[in-house]
Amino acid sequence: MKRETDSEEARLQAFVDDRLAPAARAQVEARLAQEPAARARVEALRRQREALHAVYDGVLDEPIPPRLQRSALAPRPGPALPARAAAALWLLLGTGAGWLGATAYQDASRATPQRIAAGPALAREAAVAYAVYSPEVLHPVEVDATQEKHLLGWLSKRLGHPLRAPELTRYGYRLMGGRLLPAADGPAAQLMYENRAGERLTLYVTVQPGKTTDTAFRYAEERGLSVFYWIDRDLGYALTANLARPRLLEIAGGVYRQLEP
């Protein structure tokens, strides 16, 4: 049953990406005309595709830093050309994370190289997670808010730190639930909220051991998404939404006050 479900999901994804042959595309279109659930899933996949393009398309136009070009192109004994190309790609995806970071507004008088490296990477991870999961209709969260105690206990155990879900009803948002995600330095947690208009907001939390004790807010814009982030007591927090900066700052202040012991 799961294999069949995965196959149907792949077929809908191929439809959204315009990768189906004409006959197969016609079959999917006929199905969409009869099945509201399938139509909703296609719309969610389209929104997800648009969000990912919004986050990443600009990166394609960025020049590769010279140090990465030298590292990728330098001749060295070892595997044949295809394997070298693969190694260069992993190098760009791995050590290039700082280069792919968000455009953040840093307080230069207080910033250190370690803080500068940690902050934009945190903002980008949060924005990517938002872009991937916020458009979801059927599975926006892994564990829903009806199991909040279990959700927070599970995420706290995996991150090794006690986590709380801020109460955001005064801002018009209710907790939907959350999920566990991979991050650069280990596991990360994503808590998702939604307002009555269906607009979503996420709090992304990841472990940042020894990076900084600086609790100042910093702001990043990730291709149309607003992110306020800060690092406090070995945890990094990033609040992400498609909101104007002043509105998100107001909510971020409320989140911060609730998370303070």
Structure in words:
This is Anti-sigma factor. It comes from Acidihalobacter prosperus. The protein is of the alpha+beta class and 261 residues long. The chain folds into 2 domains: 2-60; 102-259, 2-Layer Sandwich (Phosphorylase Kinase, domain 1). Helices cover 47% and strands 20% of the residues. It has helices at residues 2-16, 22-34, 36-60, 66-73, 81-94, 113-133, 148-159, 245-259, and strands at residues 103-104, 143-144, 174-183, 186-194, 200-207, 218-222, 225-232, 235-241. It has an 8-stranded antiparallel sheet with strand order 1-6-7-8-5-4-3-2, with helices on both faces. Helix 1 (2-16) crosses helix 3, helix 3 runs antiparallel to helix 6 (113-133) and helix 4 runs antiparallel to helix 5 (81-94). Mean pLDDT is 77; it is low at 83-117.
